[in-house]
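Narrative summary of target 7.
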Amino acid sequence: MKWKEVRELFPNQFVLLSILSYHEKDDKKIIDEVAPIRVIPDEMANKEFFRVKPGTVVYHTGNEECVIHIRRDPLIRVRHV
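Modeled conformation, tokenized:
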């Protein structure tokens, strides 16, 4: 299902999505196809965001595009001994 369709079915809501296909451009993962799993209540969105499994994402349908920013520089640097 395309992101536009998800936005129409679940307007202004957080949705747990399974990512079916995407492409990368610069430091962004642009989601092409998704499968909605379930709606997430607003008060549970933050908790669910940190509990997602690989290949899934919590995203709000208020966003025009479904884009994940890829962080290339790690926050924590490990010193090898």
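The helical segments are 3-9, 45-49.
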